[in-house]
Amino acid sequence: MKSHLALLLIFVLGFGFYSAYAHKTVTVEQYVIEVGWKEEPPLVGIQNAITFEFSQDEGGGVTTPVANSFRDLEATVKSGSLTKTLEILSDAKPGNYYAKIIPTKTGSLIIGLKGTLNGVPINQEIQIEDVESTDILAFPPSSSSSQDVGALKNAMSSLQKDVTEIKSKIGNVAGGNGIDLSKAYDFGVFGLALGTAGVILAVVAMVKRK
After folding, report:
1. Confidence of residue 170 (pLDDT cuts 50, 70, 90)
2. What would the pLDDT profile of 71-88 be if each residue is shown by its tens digit?
3. Structural domain spans, the chain
4. For residue 77, what pLDDT is reported?
5. CA dist 89 to 35, 79, 80, 86, 136, Å?
């Protein structure tokens, strides 16, 4: 009984994984077009490729690869309102092509195919698998996020104290004798700029680690 349950669980999990990351297939007249990611799941910041496979249905369950598929066909990738034309490269396997891409944000991408395929008009939009965060494969899990936030809060608190101190010193200088107030003000602004630059550098360093 336990072995049967184990087999059933493996089947369900395996089927679920396949469904989540299977390539998308569209049919236009006699042509079958399959589009998807080369590496699945696609991850933010990791180089990947969008793959295309073109085949012709000959009937009776027989298909043949379509050569020169992109001769009169253009492929684009769309994220929200942004669209980019893909540079298509030929794969060693006939009828197969790919375009290198580094996804920069999580979420869905839509592949557009427009033109003709051996005289057959093609105008398709295909939503491929969503881009995921690297957190889904990261091990051990990183806890740097909370530490970074804490460090930035401390830096901001320190910066606020410095601003208060600078204002106080400028006020004292204003009551002094024979001291140029404009120079004191310049030094104060310079110190404030250094503190702000330090916080900005901390933010940049944190982002680069993601």
Report:
1. low
2. 999 999 999 999 999 999
3. 23-133, 144-209
4. 98
5. 14, 21, 25, 9, 30
Fold of domain 23-133: Immunoglobulin-like (2.60.40)
The secondary structure of the chain, three-state, reads CHHHHHHHHHHHHHHHHHHHHCCEEEEECCEEEEEEECCCCCECCCCEEEEEEEEEEEECCEEEECCCCCCCEEEEEEECCEEEECCCEECCCCCEEEEEECCCCCECCEEEEEEEECCEEEEEEEECCCEECHHHCCCCCCCHHHHHHHHHHHHHHHHHHHHHHHHHHHHHHHCCCCCCHHHHHHHHHHHHHHHHHHHHHHHHHHHHHC
Residue range 46-105, pLDDT digits in tens: 999 999 999 999 999 899 999 999 999 999 999 999 999 999 999 999 999 999 999 999
pLDDT of residue 156: 65
Q: What's residue 140's pLDDT?
A: 85
The whole-model pTM stands at 0.60
Question: To which H or E segment does residue 143 belong?
Answer: none
Contact between 116 and 94 (Cβ < 8 Å): no
Q: How far apart, in whole angstroms, are the C-alpha atoms of residue 18 and residue 22?
A: 5
Closest CA to 171 of 161, 163, 181: 181
